[in-house]
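From the shared-data thread, chain only:
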Amino acid sequence: MNYLIGIDVGTSSLKTLLLDESGSVVESVSESYPFHNPKPLWSEQDPAHWWKATCLSIKRVMEAGNVSPEAIAGVGLTGQMHGLVLLDREDRVLRPCILWNDQRTAKQCAEITRKVGADRVLQLTGNPVLPGFTAPKIAWVQENEPEIFSRAARFLLPKDYVRFRLSGEHFSDVSDASGTSLLNVGKRTWSEEMCQAIGLKGSFLPELTESPVASATVSAEAARATGLLEGTPIAAGGGDQAAQAVGCGIIGEGIVSATLGTSGVVFAHSDAFRVEPNGRLHAFCHAVPHKWHLMGVMLSAAGSFEWYGNTLGAWEEMEAKSSGSNVFAWLDRQAEKAPAGSEGLLFLPYLSGERTPHPDPQARGVFFGMTLRHRKPHLTRAVLEGITYGMNDSLQLMRNLGLEISEVRASGGGAKSPFWLQMQADIYRSRIVTTNVTEGAAFGAAVLAGVASGLFGDLATAVAKVVKKTGEIDPGPHQAVYADFYPEYRALYPALKDRFASLGQVVEKYF
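Structure, as tokens:
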């Protein structure tokens, strides 16, 4: 029996998964580590934590699975995107990694956009230059830490630093590189124009490959540190969302994933490079060779439901605990007592600001349309409907770009509730599919390693072998109700946008 290892370099922990050649997860372990916020809006992490966690977790997962190093056919990598790891000429880390959620670079984003032009940036990279992306972080170090940047010889993304420690090689893949603002996403190569905007030369950039390619092998030094066999292939891997999509089987046009975790992500495979004209969707290279993906992100999806359960749903929580039931399952049952459309009560789920389709940190959560008839079940259902309307915003943007959506694959907390699954089918006006995969990005990284090592053949064969449908839900009779209320939901943000900004100024003045 041959096995594959998938490694996901997360923000708060590193996950390592052991997959057998039949596609079954044998073992999965995690190693946690800290990140730091040395100043407001800053977020940093020591890359040494990733390497220590990699060594420990590989040993642990092989020991727990009773698997020898000789049985490992390949290693796949994925992880948090956009992070900046700077190395000197001797490949020593020069400063802590600036993470994806760091927001210090607004000035640099504006300057890069001014130099290149907003329309040209979208044409080249498929996205606006955002504070979380890598290029403005490089520019920030140039401007604010010139003594450090003068010693910088190259940069790597987080998962690619782990590859370097495993192999001694400097590689990245096109899906992860898409989130740097330095890639010509349509051509899948580094963009000279974007690099020139911040004064970068080619030697500063890692070599690029497609995701299911064996870009390196485990070195003798890393073999001693991890217990792996020297020469074990290492797949190029992918950014976390692209790898997770591979693990869910999103490798053909028309198949979309909707992940309702704390945040919400809508991910669509695209055979062509499509760019949303206003940059409201991310357009990245997919982990599928020579394909692309579109992605919309809600900042507070199931997180809105959690807030509601913990705040306005406090009495249900007490009753749920006393009856031994899960509070969110209890809230689901409460929502079912209200009719579709919640008798005109609408909820805007912008509790953390918003990203898609309204990139507005000042956006706020709102209950709208409340009357004396509304009770707790109406509020509960309105929250679920508002979250699902928000996810549907991304689907509509994708359809507007010419994507024909044949099915939506649900995952995350929203896939555990039959009631919410049916609501998604009704609001999305699409068949909802659930699958056997629950392991996320590390699973997809292992699948990519299976292709890179030759164990699984091509990616389509691999996905057909390991990803199985477990359920299908078709739209029901409530879709007409939601079709009428959805435009009312869509009209609320434009009507309130200026008020959100004004309220934010008042709040900042007093709080």
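The two ends are 61 Å apart (CA to CA).
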